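Blinded run. Sample ID left blank on purpose so nobody reads anything into the name before looking at the predicted structure. Input follows.
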Amino acid sequence: MTAKQDAPRLSDLMPWSVAPLRLGRSWVLAPDPATLRARWAALVKAEDAAARERLFRPSRARTLHSAVGQLPGQATATERLYRADGPCPEPVRVVHGPFDQQWLLPDHRLIDGARPELWRVADERQLFVVEWGHVPQAPGPAVVCSALLPDGRSPAGRPGRIRPLYRRPGGQEPNLAPGLLALLGRRLDRPAGPADLLAWLTASAHHSPDGCTVPLTADPELWDRGVALGERLLWFATRGAHGRGPDGGHGAGRPRMPGGRRPYVRSALPARGLPQDVAYDPEEEALLLDDGRISPVPPGAWDFLAGGVRVLETWLAERTGTAAAGTEVPEAGSLAALRPTDWPQEWTSELLELITVLALLSELQPQCEKLRRNTEDGPQLTAGELRAAGIVPAPVSAHRPASVLDHHEEGPEGQFALL
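Blinded prediction complete.
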């Protein structure tokens, strides 16, 4: 078996994984928090029980009478929804799909499968690795890392997995196969920490017939180059929250293109209504939104694919209601149909930042490909060596969430939940 074929799988290296969030109803997620507050107000002000139920959209997992506790870390009400009349739960920022930062109502009563184990370990130290299902013939990253809680949604319908870097809050207990870092450090003759391995896999992970694989070099110099490359990818993907910026420093602000290449609004977007005609001019490197014009938008940003779809096109469709892969048209009269009628200024800023992030990530893809080739041609820590050392497969306990007992959580109807 060649070294390329014997690369370990991501599931071997990071044993604990969680399925994507299962919202159950699309109206609990929106690109802006004001829309979520308007939807909540419409729900609690429904004229009668039948109208409230129609707006809520009950499922097998959630009805207006479901008794559900709080999500960890969220101070939401726990009374049954059929008699709820309090203020809107405070929306929280999440990552929807690969790169779309949206807002979610973090209320356990509203979400079919909220994955409380993820919320329990989400804090400023946590990073989430989202492994995307493979879409044949579609390029794009096998994993995307996020500092915000991700919903793990795969636009092309290929479910992946969410893998937190740490099993406990505060950056405690890495979600790595026991003994992996020690063996890797011995092979490299230098310490290898959890953040180093995360950076490496960010740069080197790729799809294979056996799933997402992560070739591990045993060449110290190549390891250092790969970690440095991965830290830059992390810095871009997390909008400057983690990793290292181009100057090599942490916390160096948010990603920006060099002067002269930064995207700007050249012609203002419509003051009223939402853009319906979205197009890209590759010769002018311009994104056209009706009469609005943003440039320069490099082809690498417009053509950037993740999860089987074009990221920018899907991001715009989520806000304009135009058709695109992975988006749905809300039913008239539903809570999901409550959405902005005009384009908020905040969306323009977010769009410019997303263009910047995708452009910077696309520029590093050739370096990632070169890193994979160099790794395949050099010494590796193979899956066979991990098996011989007893590191793979990881013990059953490493595949389950850790117990977190340092805080209480409110159960249904205000009762304390026992963890």
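Unblinding after everyone has recorded impressions. The CA atoms of residues 30 and 36 lie 6 Å apart.
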